[in-house]
Amino acid sequence: MNRLFKCIVVLLCGVLLTGCIPITQKSSKKSIVCTTYAQYNWIQEIIGYDNSVFDLTLLIKDGTDLHSYQPTIQDLAKVSSADMFVYVGGESDQWVSDALKEAKNKKMIVVSMMSVLKNRIKEEEHVEGMKEDHEEDDESEYDEHVWLSLINAHEVIRYLSKEIQKLDEVNKDIYEENTKCYLNNIDDLNHQYQQVIKNASTKTLLFADRFPFRYLLDDYHLKYYAAFPGCSADVEASFYTITFLANKIDELKLTSIFIIDQTNLKIAQTVKDNTQKKNQKILYLDSLQSVNDKKIKNGYSYLSAMKHNLKMLREAINE
Prior knowledge:
- Strand 7, helix 7 and strand 8 form a beta-alpha-beta unit.
- It is built from 11 helices and 10 strands.
- The chain has about 325 residues and is an alpha/beta fold.
- Strands 4-3-5-6 form a 4-stranded parallel sheet.
- The protein is about 40% helix and about 15% strand.
């Protein structure tokens, strides 16, 4: 349920959902601002969906993609006065540095997911078959899609919980209990992934699309081929890439082709049409990069997205 209210420092629009854990009421709410849905949903689980202490705001919403997001003046105002600000910390967040320099709240707790996960951050890969670059950058680009690893999620959720408990020590025991319950669900799903991969008949996936799933696949030692690295801006695959991917499907006898963008089947269909059997299923993996309000109202969550991804993996690798 959306509720518009006035704060002394800045107008904030908090998105609060109905829950069941009571929280001690305070005279004024503390503000937590998140850039992406995964971190937003993690914090909902930590503080409880009916929390009356915190005003939780999601900046990148209404189906906007992380890589194309540009903050509005209203977004920057929310960040400026936040008590806690959570962002990814990669190339797409270059605007954050200037926003924090101008922040009104100098005591703000700032959490960069990639900084929390510094020992697990990976560079983007360019694997065989991807569209060739005419120029190679001297500087390495790091993969931003850290939330797609349940192991990473566990670490960041644990960290966020500790920071939130500093902001509201009165209710820290509730937050700690919520965190333990949620992490149990995260770890249980991770175990389910391990079991599915353990019994897999093939351990190679093929993406006729961009590839933001390196953290997920690396967790379970899966190989992959893809049309483009990371979240490349390319939309047209070369003849070489199409032919290479189609030949790999034939060579490895793969029965599925993965996409991450449900609106663009062109490359996947072209790859399929160039295989020998031309009967592969086109399956969708959710990168949680573009989430709209309608999906959330219909029960969408980080766990539901990752369960969907497990279902798709099971269908592709256990045939």
